[in-house]
Prior knowledge:
The structure holds two protein chains of two kinds.
Chain A (H helix, E strand, L loop, with lengths): L2 H11 L3 H14 L4 H13 L3 H14 L4 H13 L3 H14 L4 H13 L3 H14 L4 H14 L2 H14 L4 H13 L3 H14 L5 H30 L8 H22 L6 H11 L1 H23 L5 H27 L1
Chain B lengths: L1 H22 L10 H12 L4 H13 L3 H14 L4 H15 L8 H8 L20 E4 L12 H16 L1 H6 L8 E4 L6 H12 L2 E5 L1 H4 L6 H15 L3 E5 L2 H4 L10 H16 L7 E7 L17 E4 L5 H12 L9 H7 L5 H22 L7 H10 L5 H13 L7 H9 L4
Parallel strand pairs in B: 2-5, 2-6, 3-4, 4-5
Antiparallel strand pairs in B: 1-3
Amino acid sequence: MSTAAQRVEYLRELGRFDDAEREARTALAAEPQDATLLVALAAVLLGAGRHAEGLAAADAATAAAPQDERVHRLRGLLLSYMGRHHEAVQAGYTAVSLAPEEPYAATGYARVLQRAGRLTDAMTVAHRLVALAPNSAASHFLLADVASDLGDRRTARASYAEVLRLDPQHAAARHDLAVLDARSHRPARALAGLVDAGTMDPSMPQVLQTVTAVLWQLSWRLRMWLAVATVIAVFSGSGTEPSWSARITAAAILLASAALAWLTVRDLPAGTRPVVRAALRTDGPLRFTWIATGVCLAVYAVVAVTGLRVLVVIVWLALALLGWLTLGVRIVRSARRRG
Amino acid sequence: MLSARTNVSKVECVPLKLAESHRIGILDPMPDDALLTSLLSAVEAAPGDVPLRLHVAELLADRGRLPEALAHCTQAITHDAANPAALALLHRLTSAISTPEPPVFDWTSAEEQVADIEPPEFAHVEDPAPAPTIEDIERPTVTLADVGGMEQVKERLELAFLGPMRNPQLAKAFGKTLAGGLLLYGPPGCGKTFLARAVAGELGARFYNVGISDVLDMYVGASERNLSQIFDAARRNAPCVLFLDEIDALGQKRSHLAHSTSMRNVVNQLLSEMDSLGGAGDGVFVLGATNHPWDVDNALRRPGRFDRMLLVLPPDAAARASILRYHLRDRPVAQIDVDKIVRATEHFSGADLAHVCTTAAERGLAASMRAGQLRPLTTADLEAAVREIRPSTGPWFSTARTVTAFGNADGSYDDLAAYLRKNKKL
Lengths: 339, 426
């Protein structure tokens, strides 16, 4: 590899795409057909998310060095990111045909298949990749990712665990394992995993977003419990006068809520509190939901003291309001994502 | 059997033609081949026709157009993965492509051509190993007094770095070591380099600006040697401020560099060089700057290395006013309400403010050209420019928020956390 190409590679590995591109283009001005430089430039542009320009470089590299699997692999990935999945799969296949024993070629092919929605084929290639590079965390991570998309949680979980065994500081694997926990309705475990992932790589922006999603999940659980509790409170007696039955029911609900909360938070790591606070700060509706849920619990505390069962109506109204709020937020955010 | 034999004969024949096309060094542009053109059109019309596609691929291969032949062959395989003819052609093409014959070169004639050329003077002198190039070696004249606003930063800089450097005896009396560097961090374009230059000016020292490109080298060990030479050069030119710009690149977390032994060695070398500095005694003051302190290797932040961190935030109101005045000083202006623009540009970096002035100037120029006479810039031009430009610091603060949530167990980012608490909308 030429000096310039090596420097481009270094700069790309460091995430300094602007510098890497400048270096590559300067070198290409002298050697416009240098396939290594063209490949390096295409890789830089792929990393920078400038896929159309990257594809132009990859096409030029393909013409200059059609026997090099890297050019086809990069072409495939770039086409895939541009939504041209059919051509991407063809390019990926060419790469693995040229270098059937090359793990990177298999990685690229599996990725384009995954992005094209051919998850079963992607899974087959990912298994082949793991066979080619069994000690690489990246191989197991890809298999886990594809398995997760395919809904094969068992394989995904086992593969994420293998990634973390090979590379205990793999923040993305820790994050994705936490996502799997959240999808398996284990929000507390997911939250603990996310705090771990954030500690491993504090600059990973999606961790805080996932924490927010998990907090929505937890708030939904708490609201469901409060709805059930409110039904129990309403049907455990009647009348507007203070009563001991109302006091006892409210106290029992508070105790049960405290027990549930303890069961949820007991295994959370020490750094959870600032993370939760930061997540609540970034999401206004979520913050409002938790404050309103807290008010509901406070109302039960008042009922436990005064015995006034009629106050439970406030809880019922608050839960109904929160239900509508959650629905509205979900609709607006889904529309925003689609738009 | 017959079919197999036919295939074998084709396999044996074609590589010779391929080899010939390689021997001439370049693949000649094809003449307009009507048959091939019509077959290519037919392939476009029926992309799933495998025999047709293979036939076209063979014709292309015969004409030396190997990349196109390979593309058609792989598409045929996509449609019929088990097709033996396609697989045989693929094998043939890849082996033909990957083992080109070296071009024949007539050495005797070449030697005759260059026989009468005189060797260049000093050709026998061996080139010394290239010394590392250090950008912007200078003796800055700017001081902290030239930095507009940013009083808090200047005060902290004075207390944490400049004061002890100017009063070594006093610092020693209080047990404060002068070893170690200062790491400036903050969003991009907020004047970290300018501040570093001003620090050099305050200390009356030379200013060495070192970037990643001054260090990186492809040869094994060369990057480490470059780094070592840079520190040696700094010692020779003491007193000096050695400014390591974007130190997250030079000193990236080694856990992120699992696949790059060379870069890991650069980080190790940097650690070793930092340890070799003996405080103010050798006259080398190391300043680092980064937009991503969370990507810097933890070992670099230990005592004696970059153990002091200083947050350089977007310019405050006074600094924004200075920056705006600076960028407008050579432009025709009339009735500029700088305070109004200052209020509208909170969280803008210095670079964003420069961009605002440039955009406003472009508007003024366009208006002048339309009017046919010079029309000075007004507050309205600047306000329009501010509306067009979003502060570039937003994404940085978004990441910083995550970092303060997850990575502030040791309190390193308390300043940043406090700033984010004060500016919740960031």
